[in-house]
Amino acid sequence: MIESPLSVPPAAPPRRGAQGTAVLPVSPRAGRLLVLVGAFVCAACGLVYELELVALASYLTGDSVTQASLVLSVMVFAMGVGSLLAKRLRCRAAAAFGAVEAALALVGGCSAMVLYGGFVWGGSTRLLLVTFSLAIGVLIGAEVPLLMTLIQRVRRQDADGAVADLFAADYVGALVGGLAFPFLLLPLLGQLTGALITGAVNAVAGGALVLWLFRHDLSPRARRALLAANLAVLVLLGTLAAGVGGFERAARHTMYGADVRVALRTDVQEIVLTGGGRDDLGLYLDGRPRAGGHGDRRYDEALVHPAMRGPHARVLVLGGGDGLAAREVLRHSGVRQVDVAELDSGVVELARTDPALSALNGHAFRDHRVRVLTGDAFRLLRGTRAPVYDVIVSDLPDPGITESAKLYSQEFYGLAARALAPGGRIVVHAGPTSRPKAYWTVDAGLRAAGLRTAAYRVPGGSAATDRGFLLAARDRPELGLDDRPARRGLTPAALATGARAAERTRVPGLAPSTLVHPRYAERP
């Protein structure tokens, strides 16, 4: 005797209509349409689960290519396994399909919350990611064979026609789910609530299809068991959805401490602000520390001031929405214009309005010389045709993050070089020198774009504050500092020490990273 995944009691022999078809509460034509609608909804939910796993894993680890490859490959393999397993369940297709959908709603709906909790409290997501990809893939793979049996139970038709109809509904549902996730679920509900709501829709669609349309294929015990299972899944998903806010607050306190003041999700990233004073302020973007305290003052000084030795009337800051790099630029006399190109306007608004953060950046965005350009840095440089800037400060996320790889490519530096005025310089935050392969690949990209470079790191930085930089110009740049303004521990001698420390990590013979061949795969 074969049991369904939820141990539903075996169904009584189904009531047969003409030529072995099911007895339905509607006409065969309407029944067939309802099965295709069910396939459509289930396919949409399945793709949302898939995208949810990829998006959340990419957000937590920052490597979207690896996460997408892992989820897709494991899930496609598991779908094949699920299809094979479903062959043994076709004799009780209605009960098996109801059990599969209830299990899929539970596993898929809870996947994002469990994955996020595993990252916060367990410190790792890889095993959970593979486990959920396998489980969801097996359940999705079992859907189509069972639906094929059900649609043939509605009305006998040639196999080719049934396959075409079913796969058409499946593919259109996948399209709708794929579009709904980034444009509806993610911005309106967020990752956790979006997955839970999707699970609820999945449970309702699968349960209604079996418990109403194919109810005569089930014994009374099977109907009661499936109804109880679906109600239990819906109650659990609803309870978790109601508690998402508290769950996220507890997770943030675990990750950032108990003094979280601001937590918001923009179209680009999650922004968290902790603390309230200059010394204990912390700014986190997608979980990564971005600003706060005296240590970051040293980072911004080391990033900006070596590049300001020379003409610096017009300065472009790429990234730097927190205003800290602009603060250091404005400390130099002779600065007439500072353009801050930031992808996320929410960061700039917070840096402009939050009392602690605006005090930390010296109220840089109130200065009439500062202009904010909201948009992608690559696109902005591509639209800059003339040599405009004396200094370009690239204050962007580490190149090891997949989404940032194009901003550390040879093509990007070629566009930056085109925007430099004669005698201009570009300084790049190139990631930690403890990852020498990635660090010197940035150097190779700058050189491939026709620039000459000088390497250095934050002087005296520990392993926890290891920040590497590259100063580049058409002529060989000389590392040095102007006599003004005063800086926190950044002296010509300290800068020379940082240059020697960076040079000792040199990895020769590296090829530059390009748009079609990103080379920042090294892990810390």
From TrEMBL:
Family that this chain belongs to: Belongs to the spermidine/spermine synthase family.
Record: active site: D395
Name of the coding gene: speE
Record protein name field: Polyamine aminopropyltransferase
Topology with respect to the bilayer: Multi-pass membrane protein
Binding site for spermidine: D322
Keywords for this protein: Cell membrane, Membrane, Polyamine biosynthesis, Spermidine biosynthesis, Transferase, Transmembrane, Transmembrane helix
UniProt xrefs under InterPro entries: MFS_trans_sf (IPR036259), PABS (IPR030374), PABS_CS (IPR030373), SAM-dependent_MTases_sf (IPR029063), Spermi_synthase (IPR001045)
Record's subunit section: Homodimer or homotetramer.
Membrane-spanning segments: 33-59, 65-86, 93-121, 127-151, 163-186, 192-214, 226-247
Chief localization: membrane
Protein's cellular compartments: Cell membrane
